[in-house]
Specification:
With 368 residues, the chain is an alpha+beta fold. The protein folds into two domains: 4-141, Thermophilic metalloprotease (M29) (Thermophilic metalloprotease-like, 3-Layer(aba) Sandwich); 179-365, no CATH class. The chain contains twelve helices and 20 strands. A hairpin with a 2-residue loop joins strand 5 and strand 6 (203-208). It starts with a helix and ends with a strand.
Length: 368
């Protein structure tokens, strides 16, 4: 018998996150580990009158390509991906790896080459999204791999995921709508403001948000979500920031990251663990040393790191920043093959000031 929370999850993704309607063609990407959720989503799309297209991916296929492919093979853009970009109305991605370290021995430069191969299809998806003819959502299905990363049993991790997604509530959609309204008030307040000053243990950083747009991430694109983010003015970032929550990228963990910015660019970088990898990623391309995102985590159900950025960056009372690519809808213009989110925990000690107005103190929002 299917867990009622899987049914609620599928219903919320189809009706709230992706708002599927009759006739919509919907791509579903997952591994076999996510079969219960894929089946539930498939059924729900059929009930709506849509056309679900499941793409079930073997985990090692991409690893084999990255290990053995020539440059021509790594840069090859699949015709199927291009057709999907042009034809589907919606796409659901369900992260469901059983081995989260599968890419840990892959040369980051090869991974970057492979990511660039998907840029053509990504541009089509983005253009269609801007034209309101395409929407997407990403979620994560609990597996042993993710549970181990979080230092939890699989059962405990499943309960954790259900809780932070509001799936223990009879009406999860209502809960996400409440969070959306609360965050929109904050996003509206931020309109017209210019300067951010963040202070905390090992952190004293300023940046500009002048003429930039904050986006309300309320469970539609990311599920779960609970954040509002923008792209800072690229050359405005100055000072130092300390990230004490592990920063995970391509299965690699870097801990105790400390970055010094001058006129937007990282000019000093160190880490207690994984410094060599950090420095390699900063040298990936010209945009990798600049910030593409500045955001506030606002999901109060997430109270502890799980070593998964989909969850950890939403942690209430934290701030996260991403090195590399901006989201164009924020007004950000930084371009990079990198987008690496790092979390600054201000829940016990720290402040964020917006134009000399106290916005966040010790993890608590000061603006109602």
């Amino acid at each position: 018998m299917r867990d009622i929370r899987i049914t609620r999850w599928a219903h919320t993704l189809v009706h709230y996150s992706l708002y599927i309607k009759e006739g919509d063609v919907v791509a579903i990407h997952a591994t076999p580990a996510a079969a219960p959720l894929v089946e539930a989503v498939y059924e729900e799309i059929l009930r709506v009158g849509g056309h679900p297209l499941p793409f079930i991916e073997l985990e090692r296929i991409e690893e084999i390509l990255l290990q053995n492919g020539s440059e021509a093979q790594l840069t090859f853009s699949s015709p199927a991906s291009q057709v999907l970009a042009e034809r589907v109305n919606a796409r659901l991605s369900i992260a469901s790896r059983t081995n989260t370290r599968i890419f840990s021995n892959i040369d980051p430069a090869r991974s970057a080459i492979r990511r660039r191969a998907g840029q053509q299809a990504a541009r089509v998806f983005h253009e269609r999204e801007q034209a309101s003819t395409f929407r997407w959502s990403s979620t994560l299905y609990p597996t042993v791999g993710y549970a181990q990363d979080a230092n939890m049993s699989l059962r405990d991790f499943e309960e954790y995921v259900f809780d932070i997604c509001f799936l223990n509530d009879e009406n999860p959609i209502a809960r996400w709508q409440e969070l959306s309204v609360q965050q929109q008030r904050l996003v509206d307040w931020l309109v017209g403001h210019k300067q951010v000053h963040m202070q905390g243990p090992g952190t004293d950083l300023t940046l500009s948000i002048e003429n930039r747009v904050f986006i309300n991430s309320d469970g539609k694109r990311n599920f779960p979500s609970g954040e509002f983010f923008t792209g800072p003015v690229e050359n405005s970032v100055n000072g130092v920031v300390q990230f004490d929550i592990p920063a995970i990228y391509d299965g690699r963990s870097v801990e105790g990251v400390r970055l010094v910015f001058r006129e937007g660019k990282v000019v000093e970088a160190s880490a207690r663990q994984g410094q060599d990898f950090l420095l390699r990623m900063l040298d990936l391309d010209q945009g990798a040393r600049y910030l593409g995102e500045f955001a506030f985590g606002n999901n109060m159900r997430i109270t502890r790191p799980s070593r998964n950025i989909l969850f950890d960056e939403k942690m209430g009372g934290t701030v996260h920043m991403a090195l590399g690519a901006s989201y164009p809808e924020t007004g950000g213009v930084n371009r990079s093959a990198l987008h690496w989110d790092m979390i600054c925990d201000l829940r016990t000690s720290g402040e964020v000031w917006i134009d000399n107005i106290l916005f966040l103190k010790d993890g608590q929002l000061q603006i109602s």
